[in-house]
Design goal:
- By secondary structure, the chain is α+β, with helices and mostly antiparallel strands.
- The chain folds into 3 domains: about 280 residues, 2-Layer Sandwich (BirA Bifunctional Protein, domain 2); about 190 residues, no CATH class; about 150 residues, 2-Layer Sandwich (Threonyl-tRNA Synthetase, Chain A, domain 2).
- The protein is about 40% helix and about 20% strand.
- The chain is built from 19 helices and 19 strands.
- The strands form 4 sheets. Strands 1, 2, 3, 4, 5, 6, 7, 8, 9 and 10 form a 10-stranded mixed beta sheet that branches.
- Helix 2 links the parallel strand 1 and strand 2.
- About 0% of the residues have low confidence.
Amino acid sequence: MTVAEVRRKYLEFFKSKGHAIVPSAMLVPENDPTTLFTGSGMQPMVPYLLGANHPSGARIADSQKCFRAQDIEEVGDNRHTTFFEMLGNWSLGDYFKKEQLRFVFEFLTATIGLDPSRLYFTAFAGDEKNGIPQDAESVEVLQTLFGERDIEACVVALLTEELGGRNGMQGGRIFYYNARKNWWSRAGVPENMPAGEPGGPDCEIFFDFYPDSGEKCILPGFGDFCHPNCDCGRFMEIGNSVFMEYRKTDKGFERLPQRNVDFGGGLERIAAASSGNADVFTLDVFTPTTKALESASGKLYGDTSFLRSFRVVAEHLRASVFLIADGAHPSNTDQGYFTRRLLRRAVRHLDLLGIKENTLPNLVSSIVETYSDVYPSLAQKKSMIEEEIGNEEQKFRKTLDAGLKEFNRLAGKVVESKMLSGKDAFMLFSSYGLPIDMITDLAPERGLAVDTAGFDEELRKHHEISRAGSEKKFKGGLADTSEISVKYHTATHLLHQALRDVLGEEVRQKGSNITPERLRFDFAFGRKMTDEEKKRVEDIVNEKIQAKLPMQKVILPFAEAEKTGALHFFGEKYGDEVNVYFIGDSLQTAYSKEFCGGPHVTNIGVLGAFKISKEEAVSAGVRRIKAVLTE
């Protein structure tokens, strides 16, 4: 099946099971100070997993765009990607293990058509130290499901990956693993979870791409025997049902007020399983890009000498297109740092493919055309994306020469030791933008080795400093719903409409970030604002605040909400019903109307005085305003 077919069938299946289909959230979380990116399907769902009522009900499903920066260095094999779509379904205090496992089993075998004899499951072995029992209930359900298909489902207690490598499958179909593998929370194992964090045991689903291999790994060096959590490439995890029923407290673990289900399935991985080909880069979403690279390079994707470079360019370009579309413009800080890093690694691998001229912008169409039916904003922003990617490629190609000269200078200084230090390698990376894999490729040409452990340590220290700065920068963001944060959130609605009043309807919100110290608002506009325009915007906002207008909310069907003229520039799609916040006495006469999740003040008269502190460029066609509220 194509990726689009798998996505459509998944959403149709869960809609038939009573689930409301909701749109994907943005890759750059709006007003979430805890993370740079949306990295899982459950991330936007945390408030509801903790007990808040979801406006669409207790059964939800979606296909969520995700980005995981920690997987950048892994890209190049047949399965790792930084950007992916996570198929998700949730039960918020409704059904639980029995229904969930049956739903997923039915979808994979009956709807997608996977051979059940090639499916394997893992379950939570328990955590005696934290008083969390073994998940025997899930195992019993799975044995029943396999039994209905005349497949014997023996249970094996592997407990750890290491034991699996020594003991092998042992004729098993369902395997118990410890908390390092079969416990899910955003913080990892129970010991690492902060107080208040939800988590629970999970059941992971693996597909066997090489069922005729017996007990053996398909590659040497991975242990004597294979097992579902082996990394040799035989098995691929395609989904995971998390049974979110615990919350960490200062005294240990307690049950959540409601038992929740959180399922995440890799869209591309399920599509790969449906084809029986473990290489996700042969899927239809990548082939237009790899074909274009074949044409430009004169090389073939199947050539093992260039396979990694084909994959890195195709994956990093796709991720960059989605990141830029969602507001992560290439830069040296925050989310943009990762977009820049992806594009620079892609340029390096273009060079390895023998493609020297500016190429990345010409490949954007291969991605936009593949996804525009589902994510129409990609087509709407195509020219801007091409421009930013083109500028980034040109900029890096210029700095690349300087970086290579500096590398050669450093190489000449370590002729005797034949070792490039971690600090020097990190300097080449941080100051000249040379990816570490480029440095390790170049070093042997000069007879050198690279202290990669030292580089990793320098990178770790850099990340700690960046994280500390980010925590300070985003301290007390809207996620804490403090009074001042809520005031600033409401002020962004006033600012948005005032900008449209002064500058015209071409103004479109591109993103925002709120701390108790200020608001930051990004918007589409092609030039610098004049002092007179900034003053007029301030005056309009303050006039509305002084009028003490109410801020009100209505929940409307999507089509009816659109007819009201409410602004909605963030999402790709919306659910059947949406929240519309409006400033004024009625929806018809309101000054400002926007689709929004809240929260807001009830009357804007409490905001105080509004003052623009800075207006600046973010990227081509995007401006940024920083503003404060005073008493």
